[in-house]
Design goal:
This protein is mostly helical. The chain has five helices and no strands. The chain has one domain. The chain starts with a helix and ends in a 7-residue tail after the last helix.
């Protein structure tokens, strides 16, 4: 009886662990995304003023992206292509602002190394 109970508990534990692992990623808040992005910018060796300005740029960007996503979902018809076009516009505006903050070398490193690492990766099933 004791062995059956322990076996049953082990099976339940493994089932819950597997279900949790398949649950996917929870959405990050704009603040969490900003913090994670600023941490990835460490190789650029930004000074305090650059860090403050860059934090504001990303905070505004992520807040605007979240608002746009919520508006599209609320409308009832989420058009992926329209959202991607809007996101590209937002990213272009972000890059204009970052170009004013970063040095030429920092901006080049941002575009070649750091920005690609921020793009969401698709899972292959």
């Amino acid at each position: 009886m004791k062995k059956q109970f322990l076996l049953m508990m082990a099976v339940i534990f493994m089932s819950l662990t597997a279900a949790k692992a398949q649950g996917g990623m929870q959405r990050q808040t704009p603040e969490e995304r900003t913090k994670a992005t600023i941490e990835k910018l460490a190789p650029l060796k930004l000074d305090a003023d650059q860090t403050t300005k860059t934090t504001a740029v990303f905070s505004d960007l992520y807040t605007a992206q979240q608002k746009a996503m919520e508006e599209m979902r609320a409308s009832g018809s989420f058009d992926r292509e329209a959202f991607q076009a809007k996101r590209k516009e937002m990213d272009a505006a972000r890059d204009v602002k970052l170009k004013e903050i970063f040095t030429a070398d920092q901006f080049k490193k941002w575009q070649e190394e750091i920005e690609p690492s921020l793009r969401p990766q698709r899972r292959s099933n």
